[in-house]
Each structure stands twice: as structure tokens, then as C-alpha cells.
Amino acid sequence: MKIACWLLIALFPAVAQELKLPPGIDKLADKATETVDVTMDQSLLQLASRFLSDKNPDEARAKKLVAGLKGVYVKSFEFEHPGEYDQSDVSMIRAQLKPPVWQRIVGVRSRKDGENAEVFLASDGNSVTGLAVICADPKELTIVHIVGQIKPEDLRDLGGNFGIPKFEIGANHKSDSKEE
Question: For residue 161, how many other CB atoms are within 10 A of its CB?
Fold first, then answer.
């Protein structure tokens, strides 16, 4: 499911609408076997982009993309057993992602595996003003929020930079592989 979440992110543009995480969500790290926590505001993104090379084409594209970002926020918790996080945490996030500002544009649900992924966009009528992705599986919870001007095709260039996993989209990509 991790790859599915990153693929969903790769398909959609983003500009920011503030998303507040439930109080105590960081306490899930104590229960998790693996935790990812990326918090990069605009100034930190700009500082980090200075380390990207203009001579490397991939890094140059990522550097150009970062110029329009205001923040990248990722919280991901992987657990040994199902049910180690509370669905109320997910409900509190979803409650913020309601019309008329937010629209759920993608919903993936597996009754068999209990895997769920959703992509929400916010808009002001003329342009996209926010992106949020929630992947809630029995043993994993991931919340991604990207803030700033970005084109959908450029989002792939962020993969492998700033703590965002690199993802591949193409015929040779295996959906069961994990990118780190």
C-alpha cells in the first residue's frame, strides 16, 4: 500500500491549505515499529535545495520545484499488529477535509485487506490550494500534506529528495516492491 500512496501523490498538483494533525498523533511513534516524520517549512526547503546540484538534471528539476513550495509534511507509522492506532485519529483529519474547500478526488478501499487511501484537493475556484493524502491500513497510517505551487508532472521529481521516497511509474514497476 505504501507504493499506492506515493503513486496517488504523484498524480495531483498541490498548493497549501493548512491541515492540523490531531493532538497526540506523535505518541503513535512509541507504538510503531517504523516512523517517518518529515517537517520542512519554506525556509528549510530553500536551505535544503541549496545542496542540490544544478548540473544533475534530476536534482536541478527538484530544486526548481522546491522554489514554489511552502512546506512538505509527512507522518507515517508502521505497526507490528493491526489496531495499534485509533481510527478516531484518522476521523479527526478527515473532518477537516470537507467541502466546500476540500474535495475527495480519489478513494481506494480494500475490504479484504483493510487498506484505504484517499486524496483530497482544496481549491479556491480557479486553482488548487491544497493536497492531502491519507493512507490508513490495519498496520500502517500515513498522512502527507504538501504546501505550495506545483504541477502534477513535477511532483515525481520530489521523490528521493527532502525525505520523500522515490517512486517509479511505468510498465516495469512492481507494485509489491518497497521504496526507501
Answer: 21
Q: What is the pLDDT of residues 9-55, one digit of tens each?
A: 443 433 334 678 888 888 999 999 999 999 989 999 899 888 888 99
**CA-based torsion, 31, 6, 178, 65: positive or negative:** negative
- Asked if residue 159 lies in contact with residue 165, where contact means CB atoms within 8 angstroms, the answer is yes
All cell numbers assigned to 7 = 503513486
Strand order in the sheet with 116-123: 34-41, 69-78, 140-148, 128-137, 116-123, 102-109
Q: Which of 91-95, 117-121, 172-176 has the highest mean pLDDT?
A: 91-95
Q: pTM of the entire structure?
A: 0.72
**Cα–Cα dist 154/75, whole Å:** 22
Angstrom distances, CA of residue 164 to CA of 32, 145, 155:
19, 11, 10
- At residue 37, the pLDDT reads 93
Using H for helix, E for strand and C for coil, what is the string for 130-174?
Answer: EEEEEEEECCEEEEEEEEECCCHHHHHHHCCCCCCCCCCCCCCCC
